[in-house]
Specification:
Elements lengths: L1 E6 L6 H15 L3 E6 L7 H6 L4 E3 L8 H20 L4 E5 L1 H11 L5 E6 L6 H6 L1 H4 L4 E4 L2 H10 L7 E3 L13 H8 L5 E6 L8 H14 L3 E6 L5 H8 L8 E5 L4 H6 L3 E4 L8 H8 L4 E4 L4 H4 L6 E4 L4 H12 L2 H18 L2 H17 L1
Parallel strand pairs: 1-2, 1-4, 2-3, 4-5, 5-6, 6-7, 8-9, 8-11, 9-10, 11-12, 12-13
Helix pairs in contact: 1-16, 3-4, 9-10, 9-14, 12-15
Length: 368
């Protein structure tokens, strides 16, 4: 099949990484894949280019100025020419903006049009308009069952229109023992809980650092390792300097060696207010780590509470602290939850499983 993937950007982020992994998976399965990126070239273009997948960067930017508006209109014109002239079998969009600008042109061709929803934007405008492109598409995919349910409840997209294909992760899992990984990554001693992701309000790091005061009061050898960068960096740095934390919070900034860091951890916290899927949860599971996650969106499906990890309500600092204390104080529990999570992740959340899910869907649409 000739498959066109349209994505809003290829910068750092779970959606962007998922799109790159899917494109490579489809390419490796023998299909002809092209990726159109509405933004400029960024880090997630590298794996696509390494696989020999054509990537077209439209550099559309924002329409907030006359020059920006011209760039957007020019980019949309280029996008429509690519869609209309490409003789595609499948045109797949990712997130709302790409669905909005791509779907009308794609429906003028013989291609099957598939939209993938990776999360729900809190914007009321987007929620009200989400059904417009979705109703023109041949299929709409959510990356988890809880997300599909949330989309149906929050938008005009009927639940019956939504299919579910979980994201996949290409992390091979643990390659170093904990001691070697800590030395290599420069991590401290103690019981280490990690949090990996962009530092912004919706990811919940503010609540995590607040909860950590109660954790370190009960488990003085525990250390919190926060990996990533973003708008909350300065605020979290100031919070980490609180004397009550006794220097137990380490902010590493953005790191390229996240798999090594995961090998050195004892557990992972995912305190997001909402996640459509949560790649870092699956990565932690693949490294045999128990996860404390908020019961909102994708983690509800990924984490079996008390079996592969622990679930807590979003924004509940007390519940988050109690779950973290439970893990930090019980090595046997960490080992049991981590082993169960590893088995589940290897069975369900690989790139190969994701690729098979989409190819099955594409095949059904083609035969319909």
């Amino acid at each position: 099949m000739r498959i066109l993937q349209v994505v809003g950007g290829l910068d750092v982020g779970g959606v962007q990484r998922s799109v790159a992994l899917l494109a490579v998976g489809l390419h490796d399965a023998g299909h002809e894949v092209t990726v159109v990126n509405l933004a400029g070239r960024d880090v997630n273009a590298a794996p696509l280019e390494a696989a020999g997948i054509p990537v077209i960067h439209l550099a559309m930017g924002s329409a907030g100025s006359p020059r920006g508006a011209v760039a957007v209109l020019t980019g949309v014109g280029r996008l429509w020419r690519i869609v209309l002239r490409g003789r595609w079998d499948v045109v797949q969009t990712h997130l709302f903006k790409t669905a909005l600008v791509t779907t009308p042109a794609a429906r003028l061709t013989r291609a099957r049009v598939v939209g993938t929803i990776h999360g729900i934007d809190p914007s009321g405008l987007q929620r009200r308009l989400a059904g417009l492109p979705a109703r023109l598409q041949h299929a709409v995919v959510a990356v988890s069952t809880p997300l599909a349910d949330d989309v149906a409840a929050a938008t005009s997209i009927p639940r019956g229109l939504l299919s579910v294909v979980p994201d996949g992760v290409d992390d091979p899992g643990r390659t170093l023992d904990a001691a070697a990984a800590r030395t290599t990554a420069g991590l401290p001693a103690g019981t280490l809980v990690g949090c990996v992701g962009r530092l912004w309000e919706r990811k919940g790091q503010r609540e995590l650092v607040a909860a950590w005061r109660d954790v370190v009061a009960v488990c003085p050898d525990a250390r919190l390792v926060v990996v990533g960068d973003g708008p909350l960096r300065a605020e979290l740095g100031a919070a980490a300097a609180d004397p009550d934390l006794h220097g137990s919070v380490l902010l590493t900034g953005a790191r390229a060696d996240v798999p090594v860091i995961l090998d050195g951890l004892d557990a992972v916290a995912v305190p997001s207010h909402h996640e459509g899927f949560s790649l870092v949860t699956v990565e932690a599971m693949l490294h045999g780590l128990p996860v404390v996650a908020t019961a909102s969106g994708g983690p509800v499906e990924l984490v079996d509470d008390g079996v592969t990890g622990l679930l807590v309500p979003p924004r509940d600092v007390g519940a988050l602290a109690a779950a973290l204390v439970r893990l930090c104080s019980d090595a046997d529990l960490r080992a049991r939850l981590g082993a169960a999570g590893l088995a589940k992740a290897k069975d369900r959340y690989t790139v190969e499983a994701m690729t098979r899910g989409y190819l099955d869907l594409f095949g059904r649409l083609r035969d319909r």
